[in-house]
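Q: What residues go here?
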């Protein structure tokens, strides 16, 4: 097994272990730049939990704003992660009518939040909301209310105002901050591309500088895209080394 996650996975695992025997619900918000491995670290954590709780039939939901995006991006990345670890078995994947994977005797459902009627009926042990800034507060609040153990959300902070930011500082909510520099597996070509956005004299001269993309995707910081004529604002921390 090639199980080699980044530090974020182990930090979340430590939090989960601390909350496991309590009656409190753990909420983790992973905010950061592109290719920081925050999504894969959530997948690694799910694998770790399922491996240690074999045949417990935990109900785990992995969600995105739409079922199409969940199939095309989130599910594909999940499969790629399992393949990299060396534990993927296509016989354990059901794709129709909606994706489902049996991981060590635990249920993993892939769903879209565009199905609001059915979303209200998702009782769960663990929820992972991928790209949470594209989702509505109402949908996530309903899911959180029915979640028994832990909710994880991740996003690139491409806005300065959003309902998700209001969770920071609330009880049992932990915000993390990661960038591409926290991903030990990242290819050099990707690092070069990300760093080309930084507004240095060289990058400005080369025409690759993009202050917004550098701040959001390079540094993982909240920013508004000033190049948009009509910016869209959704209504309404770093983790230890």
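A:
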């Amino acid at each position: 097994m090639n199980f080699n996650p980044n530090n974020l996975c182990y930090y979340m695992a430590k939090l989960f272990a601390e909350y496991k025997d309590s009656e409190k619900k753990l909420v983790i918000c992973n905010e950061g730049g592109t290719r920081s491995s925050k999504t894969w670290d959530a997948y690694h954590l799910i694998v770790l939990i399922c491996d240690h709780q074999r045949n417990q039939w935990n109900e785990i939901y992995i969600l995105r704003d739409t079922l199409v995006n969940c199939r095309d991006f989130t599910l594909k990345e999940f499969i790629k992660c399992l393949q990299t670890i060396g534990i993927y078995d296509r016989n354990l994947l059901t794709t129709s009518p909606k994706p489902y994977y049996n991981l060590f005797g635990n249920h993993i459902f892939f769903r879209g939040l565009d199905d609001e009627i059915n979303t209200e009926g998702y009782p769960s042990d663990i929820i992972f909301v991928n790209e949470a800034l594209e989702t509505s507060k109402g949908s996530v609040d309903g899911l959180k209310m029915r979640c028994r153990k832990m909710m994880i959300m991740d996003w690139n902070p491409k806005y300065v105002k959003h309902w998700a930011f209001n969770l920071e500082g609330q009880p049992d909510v932990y915000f993390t901050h990661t960038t591409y520099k926290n991903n030990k597996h990242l290819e050099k070509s990707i690092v070069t591309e990300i760093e080309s956005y930084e507004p240095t004299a060289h990058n400005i001269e080369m025409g690759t500088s993009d202050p917004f993309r550098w701040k959001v995707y390079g540094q993982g910081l909240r920013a508004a895209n000033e190049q948009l004529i009509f910016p869209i604002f959704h209504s309404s921390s770093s983790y230890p080394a």
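A: Context that may help when evaluating the design: The radius of gyration is 18 Å. Residues 79 and 89 are 9 Å apart (CA to CA).
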